[in-house]
Amino acid sequence: MKKNVKTKILSVFLAAAMLLPLAACSQGENSNAASKSQKESENQGSGKVTLTYWAGSGTEERNAFLKKAFETYNKKNPNITVEYLGVPGSASDMDQKLNMAIAGDEVPDVVQGFLTSSYISRKIVEPLDSYVDQSSIKNDIQTKYLDVFRNTDIKNKKLYAIPAPSNGTMIYIRPDLIKEAGLSSDLDTWNDFFKIADKTTQQSKGVYGYIIRGGSRASADLEFDMYSYSGITSFFDKNGKCTINDPKNVEFVEKFLGRFKKDTSADDLNKNWTAMSAQFQSGKAVMLVHNTGSGPANFKAFNNDPNKVKGMAFPKSPYTHKVTVPQPTLNGYMMMSGSKNKAEAWKLIEYMQTPAISGGFAKIAGQIPVTKSAQSQDWIQNTQYIKASVDSSNDPNTVFTNYPYYLPNFTKIENEEDAQVQRVLLGKITAKQMLDDWAKKLQAEYDKYKNS
Amino acid sequence: MTKSIRQRGYHKKRFSVRRFFSLNVPLVLFMIFILIPLVWALLTSLKSYDQVSGENVSVFPNPLTLINYVNVWKASKFQVYFGNSLFIASVSVIFIVLLSICNGYVLSRYDFHGKKAVMVILLCTQLMPVVLFIIPLFVVFKTMGLINTRFSVILFYIVQNLAFNSIMMKSFVDGVPYEIEEAAHVDGCSRMRTLVHIVMPLLVPGIVACLVMAFVNCWNDFLVAFSFIQKQSSFTIPIALKYMIGEYNVDYGQLAAGSIIALIIPVGLFAYIQKYLVSGLSNGAVKG
Amino acid sequence: MRKGHSEVMTKGSKYFPYIAIAPSMILIAVFMFIPIFQVFNLSLQHYDYNDFGNIGYIGFQNFKKIFTDDDVFFPSALFTLKWVIVEVALQLVLGLALALLLNRKFRCRGLARSLSLVPWAVSGVLTTMLWMLIFDQNIGLLNLILIKCHVPINMLPSWLNDEKLVFPSVILAELWRGIPFFAINFLAALQGVPQEVYESCDVDGAKWYQKLFLITLPYIKESILLTTLLRCIWEFNSIDMLFTMTNGGPVNETTTLALYMMKTSIVNGDYGYGSAIGVIVFIFLLIFAMVYLKISHFGEEAE
Question: What is the ipTM of this complex?
Answer without folding.
Answer: 0.88
